[in-house]
Amino acid sequence: MIMDSIKVLTLISVCISFLLTPLIKKLAFKIKALDIPKDARKIHKEPIPLLGGMAIYLSFLITMILKEGPLVKSEVGILLGATIIVVGGLIDDLKDLRPLFKLAFQVAAASVLIIFGVEIFRITNPFPIGSDYLNLGFLVVPITILWVVGVTNALNLIDGVDGLAAGVAFICSVTIFIIAVLNGRREAALFTAILSGAIFGFLPYNFNPASIFMGDTGAQLLGFLLAAISLEGTIKSATTFAIAVPILAFGLPIYDTLFAMIRRKMNGMPIMQADKGHLHHRLLDMGLSQRKVVLIMYLISAILGGISIVAMQISSTRSYFLLTIVVVIIAFAAWKWEFFKHKE
């Protein structure tokens, strides 16, 4: 019965997103919310409407309101936080917010989650001795904010090729949905199913050749929602965060962003300065088409998602060991393919 309800709500989310996107596209043209290519980092040549993230947000919000029963405390917190992210994203898409102001919106949204009880209270213990978990104590607030802000920005930074960020977010959503179902977390399963539907309805317009972009509104929203929902769904008990699982599930954007920060630091560049060293840029430089690049990155994301599901089913110690192996392999590949060398 519960799964039937989730299926219906997912279908509603898909339909709302699919029908809203053309209307949002017209609005973006009308108010001149356009991504106009101004530098070499831009792949498209013609102005493309932004604000596609609004279709995802409205679809997600409306479907959540339509679900059976009143919103619970954590759901209200996630929706309020998402709204703060959307407001900041809209301002950024229209007026180009300075990084510090963007960060302020993200921290505010993460703080709302904490106020409503969506936080990392404790993590699974990687060592086989003592308790099965480690209480974070006074570190609850900074670690929760770091997780939410980190994933929000990671999704935003890979949004450089048609359909890439949306597709990766869809794969991450499905991964967390499966983990939530296996873990008996109905609320998280509902969240991710509805989010998956909202993304799926938008993707036909965003896949190459894209007729509309998500903009910062959508990319930050998806990162925030995935970070928030993972706190509810990738856990082994009501309050213990299985940290290896979401790090694997969101591996592609997390590692790509981490390598970008290391690369910029090693080359004496500001960490926030954009470059053309991201994985999608390097694959494009190899002569691959946008579609091939996106499909390759979808595959990588799906593989990491599959590994995260395995990590959820094994002991905490083994899941950390699995995470370590994956990180070492990815770091070696990044070094071998010169990911840490600067590219203009």
Automatic annotation (TrEMBL):
Could you tell me where this protein is found in the cell?
A: Cell membrane
Q: Into which EC class is this enzyme placed?
A: transferase
Could you name the domain of life of the organism this protein comes from?
Answer: Bacteria
Q: What residue ranges are annotated as transmembrane?
A: 6-24, 48-66, 72-91, 103-121, 133-151, 163-182, 188-207, 241-262, 293-314, 320-337
For this protein, the record's PROSITE patterns field holds: MRAY_2 (PS01348)
One GO cellular component term of this record is: plasma membrane
Identify the residues that bind Mg(2+): 156, 216
Q: Which UniProt keywords apply?
A: Cell membrane, Magnesium, Membrane, Metal-binding, Transferase, Transmembrane, Transmembrane helix
What is this entry's stated membrane topology? Multi-pass membrane protein
Q: Name one GO molecular function term.
A: metal ion binding
Q: State the EC number(s).
A: 2.7.8.33
The biological process GO terms on file are: cell wall macromolecule biosynthetic process; cell wall organization; lipopolysaccharide biosynthetic process
- Cofactors demanded by this protein: Mg(2+)
> Does the record carry Acetylation as a key word?
no
Q: Provide the protein name.
A: Putative undecaprenyl-phosphate N-acetylglucosaminyl 1-phosphate transferase
Which species does this protein come from?
Answer: Clostridium homopropionicum DSM 5847
Name the gene: tagO
